[in-house]
Amino acid sequence: MRFEVTRVLDSIERRLCTDPGAARAIVDLAPIVRQVELDGGRPAHLLRLGLVIDALGTHLGEPGAKVYVVVDRALITDLELTSNEKMVLRRWADDGLVEALPEVDDRLLELSAYTGLPVVSRDDFARFAGRHPWAAGAPFLIPVPGVGGAALMTRPGAAPTMPRPTLDPATQAVLGRYWRCPEPGCVLYGTPGPAQPPPRVRSGRAVCPRHGVPMHDGGPRQQATSVTIWIRGEDRGRFPVASGAPVVVGRSPEGPGGIRLGELLDDEAVHWVSRSHVRLELLDGALVVTDTSTNGTTVHTRSGPDAVPETITLHRGQQRRLGDWDVVELHEGVQLCRADRRPDASGADDAPVMAEAPTMAIRLPGSAADRRG
What we know:
20% of the residues lie in helices and 28% in strands. It is of the alpha+beta class. Mean pLDDT is 89; it is low at 364-373. Keywords: Phosphoprotein.
């Protein structure tokens, strides 16, 4: 059973990120871990995050949706969690897969205001009404018991769409820059880049949410879109495409900044994918693909996750402006698409993360031995 629990935690891990461009919601972890009515099990259980992630995929109609998780650091030492759960949670925080804070405070609302992402939480946030009046009518999502797991319910009386609060000029200036944390080894703000999450803003200054210290200016933030590499249905990494900085993708592109796929390809794909196969660039906020290959590139255009795709073939020198759900295919099974989308409506990462969870692992109260790990 422990092996199955570990596999579920691994599945959950693949849905975690602190890249706002790839996440589909912000999750308030601690209350969910303690929400016993979701499964009737132990007082605290990390697998409940999996129930909520699956519920989000169902709610959005996007299986495989990723989440930006914010957690109070005290949960990492919570005595109600098993030693393995605490170890996994600590590793997620150390690897920058979740944002672990001394105090969550209004960080959830801050992230939502800056990114436009909804918050998944049981909190009504009434205590922050003065600082974040817009949140009262925001369509945040509440986890509730559902058939065979959890479900998400939009807050009663909420607006139909996420409001975008007006930010003061000082905050806008902070969000328009990259930042470096002075603390050695800070996983969220060590190296500036398009996937860097927005900092906390206090009195017009950027503050590291993890360490609580003012940060150093890392230069102007470029508009960018994250792209995911999919090989045979598996997520094999992502890269940013920033405004004014085209990215060449291929088997082994020359020059700095190219995305090398050679070691990820099987024997057939190695002979089909060109050394420099496509060029991606961000023009007027949209991704544009240009074919630079010998064998051509296929673009699957879709209007949504369940839409039947239309296929367009590009030849050397031809380009196309990509829609939000379009997929670029260099060879069968070698695909590129926006990081917050999947190349199709199925796949390994689309399976519910709780599909292999042993029922007994959640529903039975943990024994003393279980809590020791």
